[in-house]
Amino acid sequence: MEVVIVPDAKAGGELVAGAMASLLREKPDAVLGVATGSTPIPVYEALAALVRAGEADVSRARIAQLDEYVGLPAGHPESYRSVLRREVLEPLGVEEDAFLGPDGGAADLVAACAAYERALAEAGGVDLQLLGIGTDGHIGFNEPCSSLASRTRLKTLTERTRADNARFFDGDVGQVPRHVITQGIGTILDARHLVLLATGEGKADAVAAAVEGPLAAVCPASALQLHPHATVVVDEAAASKLRLADYFRHTWSHKPEWQGL
Q: Where are the active-site residues found (predicted)?
C-alpha cells in the first residue's frame, strides 16, 4: 500500500478531495464511493470548495454508498442515506438520481443486498472508494473475522462498534441498530482505487495492523494489502504506531507530482 502521512485532518481532506477532482477531470461520470462518520467530512468540505471554485465538476458523477443501517424509518436523520444527502449530495449539488445505495428498509433484505451488487455492476463499478477504519480494523461494516471474499450482505454489529456509533444517537447505544447492510470486503476490493483515511491516535493501532500486520480476517482492513491501487492517508497521530513511518514520509516526499495519489 501507498501510505501518505499528512499534518492534520484538514490536509488529509484536501489531498483526497484533490484526487477525486483529478479523477473527475479524467472521467466526468466516475462513480465515487463514499463513507460516513466524522473522518471523511473534511474530504467532502474540501471537494465542495473545489466545486464552488470551478475546480471540480460533479455534474455527471455518481455517488455510491458503502453501507446502511437496517430498520431505521425512512428519512431518519441518522440513516446513512440521510447523512450522505446532508454531507455529500446537497453540498456538491449532486441530484438524488445519481445516488446508489442499498435499501435498509426493504422487506426482503437478502434481495436488497443482491440488488445493490447488480446496481454497482451496472454502473461500471466504483472508480474511487473512500474508506474509514474502525478501532477494531473494520472497513464498511465488515467486522473482524469477516470473509475477505464477502459480497454485499447483512451483518450484525459488534457491541464495540455500536458503542463507537452511539455519539450519533445522542450517546444512547440502545438507539443504534444492531444490523446493517454493507458492501463486503470482496465488493470493496472491486473498486479501482481504494483510499483509506484515518485521523487521531485512537486509530493508530488499527492503522498499524492494516498496513504492517499480517493479512488476516481479524483485521478486515488488512485486505487492502491485496489491492493493486490502495492509498492510506493518515495524520501524524494515526501514524504514530507505524514502524515504517519515516520510510513512508521519504517515499511520498520523493514521489513525482504527476503520479498523484
A: 67, 136, 138, 143
- State yes or no: is 29 an active-site residue: no
Instruction: Give me the torsion for CA of 118, 123, 128, 131, rounded to 10°.
Output: -30
Find the catalytic residue in 14, 67, 68, 235. 67
Confidence of residue 258 (pLDDT cuts 50, 70, 90): confident
CATH number at residue 62: 3.40.50.1360
N-to-C CA span, the chain: 11
> Is pLDDT of 260 > 90?
no
Q: Is 14 a catalytic residue?
A: no
Do residues 176 and 165 touch, judged by C-beta distance below 8 A? Answer: yes
Is 246 part of the annotated catalytic residue set?
Answer: no
- The count of structural domains within the chain is 1
C-alpha 55: how far from chain center: 23
Residue 259 lies in a domain: no
Amino acid identity of residue 250, one-letter, is: H
